[in-house]
Amino acid sequence: MKKIGLYAAALPISALVYLLVVGSPSKAPEGAVKAPALAGPLSGGGRAALADYAGKVVLVDFWATWCDPCAAEIPELNALHQKLESKGFAVLGVSMDEEGDKAVLRFKMKQPISYPVILNNSERAPAGWSAPGFPTAYLIGRDGMAARRWFGAKDMAEVERAIRAVLDE
Question: Which domain holds residue 78?
Answer without folding.
Answer: 24-167
